[in-house]
From TrEMBL:
Organism taxonomic ancestry: Bacteria, Pseudomonadati, Bacteroidota, Sphingobacteriia, Sphingobacteriales
PANTHER family from the UniProt entry: ALDEHYDE DEHYDROGENASE
Protein name, per record: Aldehyde dehydrogenase family protein
Molecular-function GO terms, alphabetical: lactaldehyde dehydrogenase (NAD+) activity
Aldehyde dehydrogenase domain sequence ranges: 3-454
Family (UniProt): Belongs to the aldehyde dehydrogenase family.
Superkingdom of origin organism: Bacteria
Signal peptide feature range: none
Pfam families hit by this protein: Aldedh
Annotated source species: Candidatus Sphingobacterium stercoripullorum
Length: 464
């Protein structure tokens, strides 16, 4: 059987080899999950799911160090940030657990017309069916929580395909779920190739697909879904920021640096395009450059590291070529612009790159922040909205009227005021619009999406 080699993102050393499953085993997974769901007598009751998730959180709290090191090594996110991810993941399990208590129905009024007399109508919610989850590498544990735990909390069997570069966090977490009491076949892991993942996702037995990854793959999968399959897609963006001349610079610079260089920019809402009023553009650009120069780049397992590697060496080559293209086109390189190793690239700040350069038109997914000068805020907003990707954005200003007007005009699913674009908590709605995705994530929102309504109408002459 073919094997997947899992390499450490930083030094490309072999961590583990895992057997890949093919379509034959994937078919068995689908059959087991579908058969399980079709028998409603086997559905897990709310109190059972809550008890399992409670135990899961307890087990994770006892293994924070182990979970942190697995995520940091395979994914390259620095130890300090990977630990934050693990703590978020534990919190996410607890949020999902609490959300089960919020799954409730409602009464629909009857007797309002002659035809509706003597009836009682109640809406209840039940799990939608088998969930397929295809995940991304950049948050190897927390994304699994958002896709797998939400499905389990909703009462759905789930088959999860983690990113090929970061499957270990997922496998380890699923073992924790089993240890916590998840019965057989409720959560299955498919370590497989793209073709088999597509086979699973587009099978008619799948009722819900949650996909986090590239727009090209996501929209392709949607076009091939079986009729009736519900979908949530989460793709990328370019995270524009509008900076007015009255912004608070003491908070602005560290905020932009964190939002732009966190996880080496490998976040779908990383700060990428910063439009700054011409009166303060030099101050902002130089301040951001100084902040970037101070960042410690290196081994993600070191507690000193602030910026780790890109996920694979090929990504370093791509980022390097994009930056060079921008410089050749007239961008001013303020800091960075060079590879440190085969896997690490310097935090880089570019001033006024061409608007048609790749760093201006596509998601960089690397440690690159572009600063653009503007004189007219409305024109800056027009440029921020010009691409077909729209996810999170932000505006920095002390003027509440300007802030509210900018929030209204920016085409984004979420707009931060005086904060970077990468802010997120796991109970808020989160997702892209237009080319950047479809549907909203966020743990309570995902659970709701994985439920469907059932109306029961009782007729009795004893009813009014």
């Amino acid at each position: 059987m073919e094997k997947l080699e899992v390499l450490a993102a930083y030094d490309q050393k072999l961590i583990k080899e895992i057997l890949l499953i093919g379509k034959e085993e994937a078919e068995k997974q689908l059959d087991r999950a579908y058969t399980l769901f079709q028998d409603s007598s086997r559905w897990l009751k709310a109190h059972q799911r809550k008890a399992i998730l409670d135990k899961t959180a307890q087990l994770m709290e006892g293994r924070i160090e182990e979970l942190t090191k697995i995520a940091a090594q395979e994914g390259g996110k620095p130890y300090i940030d990977s630990k934050v991810e693990v703590l978020r993941a534990i919190s996410g399990v607890k949020i999902a657990n609490e959300s089960i208590s919020q799954i409730g129905g409602k009464e629909i009024p009857m007797g309002l017309t002659k035809a509706s007399e003597n009836r009682l109508a109640m809406v209840s919610y039940e799990p939608i069916g088998v969930v397929a989850a295809i995940s991304a590498f950049n948050h190897p544990l927390n994304l699994i929580i958002h896709q797998v735990v939400t499905a389990f909390a909703a009462g759905c069997p789930v088959i999860v395909k983690p990113a090929s570069t970061t499957p270990l966090s997922c496998l380890n977490f699923v073992e924790i779920l089993k240890e916590a009491g998840v019965p057989e076949d409720w959560v299955q892991v498919a370590i497989t190739d793209s073709a088999t993942a597509e086979f699973i996702a587009t099978d008619s037995r799948i009722a819900f697909l949650t996909f986090i990854g590239s727009a090209k793959v996501g929209w392709m999968l949607k076009s091939k879904l079986a009729p009736g399959t519900r979908i949530v897609l989460e793709h990328g963006g370019v995270a524009p920021v509008i900076v007015e001349k009255d912004a608070d610079f003491k908070e602005l610079i560290p905020s932009l640096a964190k939002g732009g260089f966190y996880h080496a920019g490998q976040v779908c809402v990383s700060v990428q395009k910063v439009f700054v009023h011409q009166d303060v553009v030099d101050k902002v650009a130089q301040g951001l450059s100084r902040a970037a120069e101070k960042l410690i780049v290196g081994d993600p397992l070191s507690e000193e590291t602030e910026v780790g590697p890109l996920i694979i060496p090929k990504e370093v080559e791509r980022v390097e070529s994009w930056v060079q293209e921008a410089i050749d086109g007239g961008a001013q390189l303020l800091t960075g612009g060079k590879r440190i190793s085969d896997t690490c690239y310097e935090p880089t700040v570019l001033l006024n790159p061409p608007l048609d350069a790749k760093v201006s038109t596509e998601e960089v997914f690397g440690p690159i922040v572009c600063v653009y000068s503007y004189s007219d805020r409305l024109q800056a907003i027009e440029l921020a909205n010009a691409l077909n990707v729209h996810f999170q954005a932000s505006v920095f200003t002390k003027n509440i009227d300007v802030a509210l007007d900018t929030v209204k005009r920016l085409n984004a699913s979420t707009v931060m005021v005086n904060d970077h674009t990468a802010f997120r908590v796991d109970w808020m709605p989160f997702g892209g619009r237009d080319h950047s995705g479809e549907g909203m994530g966020g743990i309570p929102y995902s659970i709701k999406d994985m439920l469907r309504e059932k109306l029961m109408v009782i007729k009795s002459n004893l009813l009014p």
